[in-house]
Amino acid sequence: MSFAADAIFPTHNGPGIYAIRCLLDGKVYVGQSVTVRKRLRGHRCLLNGHRHRNRHLQFAWNKHGEQAFEFVLLEECTVGDLRARETHWVKECRAQDDRFGYNFVDPADSVGRQREFIVTDPDGNEQRIWNLNKFCRENGLGASCNMTLVAQGKHMHCKGWLCRYADEPLYDWLEKRDRFSQRSASTKWYGGEYLVTDPKGKEYRVFRLSAFCAEHGLSYDCMMQAVRGVQYQHKGWTCQRFGELGELELERCRSQRMQ
Asked: Are residues 103 and 122 in the same domain?
């Protein structure tokens, strides 16, 4: 069998459970993905580049060569069943036993793969997604790592979009963002995100303050003076950084948690 061709991979590229099996001793590595074929190609690339994070599988790959391994689709399933079915197959294949497999982390304890996200668009609409790469491509958000940094609290937003892990409470995510922004002496982590209030009290969430000022006949320099506290308002408009708004949200979440 030639391992140079894509024919070595299962044709299924939807959600499912897969295995990388050593033909010499029968040991297996069991995993799950929303795009099985693509994920297996990624495994092969990492193994050939000596960069796979599973050092036991990498050692066996280096020792026996890629021709000693096969890529197998164990089961097709829905996205919501991935974690449960992966746990089933890890136990079925005894993949956590070093005599039979290479899985030495319980899938139930794994937090780094295929997590569900809650994304919020610039208009405040929320939706839940699993495939962050596909979502970012479809919405022109660039590399998914940018949205992942938002979920990790290391970036305030990505082109006006917010993102957090679905299994992480809103309070914890806001607090994580707050801690990270406080550690950074630079204002770049605020990403140009502002809360603007017009003379009638209507609030706007603004990501491009310069464009907003041009649209409403305001001076960008004067609005930045208001942001820095040099002046209170400009033409009746007030403005503050979203980081300060985050503090208000944190206080609200803390109050809700106490109730």
From this structure: no
Q: What angle do CA 52, 58, 61 make, to 5 degrees?
A: 130
Question: Rounded distance, CA 35 to CA 233, Å?
Answer: 52
Distance CA 32, CA 77 (A): 10
Count of domains in the chain? 3
Output the domain CATH number for residue 28. Answer: 3.40.1440.10
Indicate if 230 and 254 belong to the same structural domain.
Answer: yes
Q: How far apart are CA 204 and CA 215, in angstroms?
A: 13
Torsion of CA 121, 127, 131, 137, to 10 degrees: -30
31 plus 84 within the same structural domain: yes
Write out pLDDT tens, residues 41-97.
Answer: 999 988 998 888 888 899 999 999 999 999 999 999 999 899 899 989 999 999 988
**Cα 94 from Cα 102, distance rounded (Å):** 9
Asked if residue 64 and residue 25 are part of one domain, the reply reads yes
Domain assignment of residue 42, given as a range: 9-109
For the chain, list the strands marked E by DSSP.
16-22, 28-33, 69-76, 117-120, 126-129, 162-165, 194-197, 203-206, 238-241
Looking at the fold, whether 102 and 124 belong to one and the same domain comes out as no
Sign of the dihedral through C-alpha 129, 133, 135, 141: positive
Q: Does the pTM of the predicted model rise above 0.90? A: no
Is the separation of the CB atoms in 242 and 248 below 8 Å? Answer: no
For the domain that residue 226 is a member of, what is the CATH number?
1.10.10.10
Residue 217, in any domain of the structure: yes
pLDDT digits (tens, 9 = 90+) for 186-238: 444 344 578 888 998 888 888 777 778 888 888 877 887 787 777 778 899 98
Calculate ∠ Cα 208-214-220, nearest 5°.
70
